[in-house]
Amino acid sequence: MFQDRAEIHVHAGRGGDGSLHFRREKHVPRGGPDGGDGGPGGDLVLLADPDLRDLSAFRAKQRFKAGSGEPGRGALKHGATGETVELRVPVGTQVLDEDEQVIADLATPGARVIAARGGRPGRGNKRFASPTRRAPRFAETGLPGEEATLDLRLKLLADAALAGLPNAGKSSLLTRISNAKPKVADYPFTTLAPILGTVDAPDGTRQLTVADVPGLIEGASEGVGLGHEFLAHLERANLLLHVIDSSEDDAVERFATIDRELAAYGADLENRPQAIVLNKIDLLVEPPSFDLEDDRIVRVFRVSCATGAGIDELRRALFELCPPQQSPEPSKDGLVDFLVYRPRAGGRRFRILRTDQGFRISGEVPEDEEELAAALKAAGARKGDEVEVDGEVLEVQ
Ligand SMILES: Nc1nc2c(ncn2[C@@H]2O[C@H](COP(=O)(O)OP(=O)(O)OP(=O)(O)O)[C@@H](O)[C@H]2O)c(=O)[nH]1
Ligand SMILES: [Mg+2]
After folding, report:
1. 75 vs 17, 35, 247, 263, CA distance in Å?
2. Nearest-CA neighbor of 140 among 56, 35, 232?
């Protein structure tokens, strides 16, 4: 089954703790501090992979965690960075946060976004040494990695998309003009999931993608037929190809039915430029007429997917009607970052230090006890551990 939505939970890696350590060597009775820093937590990254067609890979697994940074060690050894976890998604995937805000739009192959950033590492005690504090008996703990529940929504990227009533011949048209092999049959709702086809220019210099989606009927916006949720895949097409079975009466009226459903969907679909494809002309004696003055209609084609009449002309015209799209320049490393909006929690205003006794809080101590307890727990504090806050020693409850 084609899956155009998935909900996943991502958890970046925790930063490694700084090390609390003093140099120990023969003949050096009291060595200085030499605790190294922890390693940063691994990021959780989403990457647009052109080889993927949908989000069905996320049916089996929804929770993902990146690696934790390693703790620092003595002799100024810094901890290794936590392992980055990269999740591959199809090109055209939008990433939404819990408030339904789009935080990233992975619309080009190779686009990537850090969905959850790894936690900052803690600094080792060496970093806290100063002329007045030669032997710091504490080191900083690493911070937890970001965590988020994300909604992934695939919106196919196509130059043109087919729209029309069931049985109009949309899939037949895609079969005629592209490399795709959608199912074609003499009953409504043959197509159950969107499919993309690639159309080659007659001179071989360009390619276009065309999306075929399930047929629409009156009331689709209220869920009749297959509903209109598949129209999300029309949202990013520059041109709609409205296919109409011209062997039936009243093509203009059937055009209006689909037009109403496009308008009911929203997203301004009804104002997209449209080309009308009057199909099945092989069943008519006279070429069909289509008397409608409408600024949105850029061309009217008369074709037969059965005999191939008019198809070459339509294919050629498609390349005129869909000018090449400007794709954003990839950055030097070949990756395109598509960061639309990224809320980031403000950094903490306090630090948790590990001492040889237990823990110490420095900076602005949070008033909210729960916040402090959670932060201590994340730093590895257990029940009974001593915590020094503002010169007072408390015990973790
Ligand atoms: N005679 C004739 N039949 C056609 C033509 N184009 C398509 N058909 C037939 O019309 C029927 C429906 O074609 P499809 O391509 O499956 O139609 P569709 O619009 O994709 O239908 P849904 O996926 O159900 O929305 C099939 O039996 C096709 O063989 C044509 O130009 N002439
Ligand atoms: Mg079809």
Report:
1. 15, 6, 84, 68
2. 35
Rounded to the nearest whole angstrom, what is the distance from the C-alpha of residue 333 to the centroid of ligand 2?
41
The minimum-distance atom of ligand 1 relative to the CA of 214 is 25
Ligand 1 pocket by Cβ (under 6 Å)? 164, 166-172, 184-186, 188-191, 214-215, 279-280, 282-283, 304-306
Q: Which ligand is nearest to the CA of 175?
A: 1
* pLDDT tier for residue 347 given thresholds of 50, 70 and 90: low
Q: What residue type is 118 in one-letter code? A: G
CA of 280 to the centre of ligand 2 (A): 14
- Mean residue pLDDT across the chain: 86
Report the top-level CATH class of 5-155+332-347.
mainly beta
Buried b (16+ CB within 10 A) or exposed e, 265-287: beeebbebbbbbbbbbbeeeeee
**What is the location of CATH 3.40.50.300 in the chain?**
160-321
Length of the chain: 397
- Mean pLDDT in residue range 174-180: 91
pLDDT digits (tens, 9 = 90+) for 97-149: 888 888 888 988 888 899 999 999 999 999 988 888 888 888 999 999 999 99
CATH fold of 160-321 reads: Rossmann fold (3.40.50)
The reply to whether the predicted model has a pTM over 0.90 is: no
Whether residue 13 contacts residue 145, with contact meaning beta carbons closer than 8 Å, is answered with yes
Which one of the ligands is nearest to 242 CA?
Answer: 1
Question: 275 or 356: whose pLDDT is higher?
Answer: 275
